[in-house]
Design brief:
Elements lengths: L3 H13 L2 H8 L3 H15 L4 E4 L7 E4 L1 H22 L1 H6 L3 E2 L4 E11 L3 E8 L4 E7 H7 L6 E5 L8 E2 L6
Helix pairs in contact: 1-2, 1-4, 2-3
Length: 169
């Protein structure tokens, strides 16, 4: 399994050249970070992070070519998924209807960036306000700024349900 936290961790290792620093910035313990890296490497049968033991010269960590490639593919896949989910016509063209009816039109009223995630406040037409915690990377990918009209898609899990026009296969 490779999730958003794993992607953040690898990204920060690539940027900071330190597993310790990356773990701090992601908000997990060094042990958790190291365990995550090992699980990813075992599952993929590839080395993702190269480490150098400390000492006088100092230690460090860098992403391998496979680690860099995995992170790039994750970002590409995530962007494709969000593009497809946002394209209602594409869903209709393939005869699917989204099970999520809790899609709300809103306007971004505030974006607060943190170390890894951003808080995006949106105002609904009914004058209620929603707050979403999303990655800074997602804010950048969507080019979010105050005043943008957006659609908030509320989900309880990462599982989406789609039903074909012929009743499913």
């Amino acid at each position: 399994m490779f999730d958003q936290t794993d992607a953040f961790l690898l990204r920060r290792v690539g940027e900071t050249h330190s597993l310790t620093e990356a773990a701090k910035e992601v908000g997990i313990s060094y042990r958790n970070a190291w365990d995550r890296v090992k699980v990813m490497e075992e599952n993929l049968h590839r080395r993702l992070v190269e480490t150098k033991v400390g000492g006088r010269a100092g230690g460090g960590a860098t992403l391998t070519a496979d680690g860099t490639r995995l992170l790039k593919e994750f970002r590409k896949t995530r962007k494709l998924l969000f593009d497809v989910l946002d394209d209602r016509e594409a869903w209709e063209d393939v005869g699917y209807k989204l099970s999520a009816r809790n899609r709300l039109r809103a306007r971004v009223v505030e974006v607060k960036r943190g170390a890894v995630t951003s808080q995006v406040k949106m105002r609904l037409v009914s004058a209620n306000t929603l707050t979403s915690i999303i990655t800074n990377e997602a804010v950048d990918d969507l080019s979010l700024k105050e005043g943008d009209e957006v659609e908030a898609v509320v989900k309880s899990t990462d599982v989406l349900v789609a039903k074909g026009a012929t009743g499913g296969r």
